[in-house]
Fold this protein.
Amino acid sequence: MQTERVTFLTTPDHKAGLARRAAAQGISVGEYVRRKTDEDDELTPEQEAELVMLVAHVNEAIPQMAATLDAMIDTVRHTREEIAGTLDRLDRSE
């Protein structure tokens, strides 16, 4: 098998991360990068199904999250109004 050298520049932190991940698998950084670049970019049917399920859960959760945020905004607004009213009353009593 004939090989050719490929060089790329990266940050020291990224290089250290590559070295850690490679070491965790007991392989060289070069082998780690080769394996990662050879991986197929397409999802497996299992990954696709899991992604569809996760998206459905997120889509179901978003309305409740929005309602919770709206309630929090109302609570903060009400609290600010109460504080402003209390400060006004204190200013008038002095």
Residues 1-39 form one domain.
